């Protein structure tokens, strides 16, 4: 299991400023809890009450080197349960990849739903988490909910459209037997798919490690570094655009123009942009 804290975010009406993320590496089941602060006693209490009391103590807990997770209190908690505590290497958050990726996904989802004042993000967390748990994960090919519970989640829309047919079982023993078989099948499928996904991710990483050239006319998205007073950067959209490649200046520098910027027909002058600051669009034409 991995754990991390995200923030600070704009303080909500309930005085929450941080999010604690806890995720299971195998099932990808990940939860997020709003926090008023990220002190060790707060993090330890929420981890115990919201995760351990519901799912049991994990064998291993992985985190970054934040002071809250490296504190004496947190180490004593791990020793009491007992939990094998591990941590990332310095300045290398990629080794805590599950929660780091989830943090990006969570912030991206919140940016579409928060109010203009960004003060209601904590009330949206349960709905965002529901959407994540009921979505097929790329690394497992099934939803986190199904890996954990052995069945598909029943959403309100399923009931409204009468899509949930349910199962008729004669006894608890029959239910347990069927659940064991289903979970065994799901776990085996997840293991096989994760092996393939790991190989694909390695190939993608090796490809990105080489130079990736962009052709003139291709569409790209540029990282949004613009900061507005009174607006939390973490809840802003990470990319802006799309932009079209106007010219490749060098192997790493490109001139870009907004796709929908100029209506006069003339292409505005654009400063050179490093290729590390933009990503390809899925809708190139």
TrEMBL record:
The secretion signal range is: none
Bias class Polar residues marks the residues at 263-285
Q: Which residues form the Integrase catalytic domain?
A: 1-152
Q: Name one Pfam family in it.
A: rve
Its GO biological process annotations read: DNA integration
* SUPFAM superfamilies assigned to the protein according to its UniProt record, in alphabetical order: Ribonuclease H-like (SSF53098)
Q: Which PANTHER family match?
A: INTEGRASE CATALYTIC DOMAIN-CONTAINING PROTEIN, PROTEIN CBG26694
* Name by which UniProt lists this protein: Integrase catalytic domain-containing protein
Organism this protein belongs to = Iconisemion striatum
Upper lineage is: Eukaryota, Metazoa, Chordata, Craniata, Vertebrata
């Amino acid at each position: 299991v991995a754990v991390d804290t995200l923030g600070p975010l704009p303080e909500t009406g309930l005085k929450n400023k941080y999010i604690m993320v806890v995720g299971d590496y195998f099932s990808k089941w990940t939860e997020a809890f709003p926090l008023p602060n990220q002190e060790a006693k707060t993090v330890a209490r929420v981890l115990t009450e919201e995760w351990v009391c519901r799912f049991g103590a994990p064998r291993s807990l992985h985190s970054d080197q934040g002071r809250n997770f490296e504190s004496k209190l947190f180490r004593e908690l791990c020793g009491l349960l007992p939990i094998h505590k591990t941590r990332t290497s310095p300045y290398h958050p990629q080794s805590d990849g599950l929660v780091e990726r989830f943090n990006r996904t969570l912030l991206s989802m919140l940016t579409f739903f928060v109010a203009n004042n960004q003060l209601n993000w904590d009330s949206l967390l349960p709905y965002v988490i529901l959407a994540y748990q009921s979505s097929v994960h790329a690394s497992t090919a099934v939803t986190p909910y199904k890996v954990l519970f052995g069945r598909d989640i029943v959403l309100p829309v399923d009931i409204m459209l009468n899509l949930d047919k349910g199962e008729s079982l004669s006894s608890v023993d029959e239910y347990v037997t069927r659940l064991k078989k289903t979970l065994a099948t799901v776990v085996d499928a997840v293991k096989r798919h994760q092996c393939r996904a790991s190989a694909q991710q390695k190939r993608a990483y090796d490809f990105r490690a080489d130079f990736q050239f962009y052709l003139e006319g291709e569409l790209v998205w540029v990282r949004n570094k613009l900061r507005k007073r009174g607006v939390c950067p973490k809840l802003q959209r990470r990319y802006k655009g799309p932009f079209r490649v106007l010219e490749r200046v060098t192997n790493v520098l490109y001139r870009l123009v907004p796709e929908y910027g100029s209506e006069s027909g003339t292409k505005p002058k654009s400063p050179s942009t490093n290729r590390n600051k933009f990503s390809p669009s899925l809708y190139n034409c």
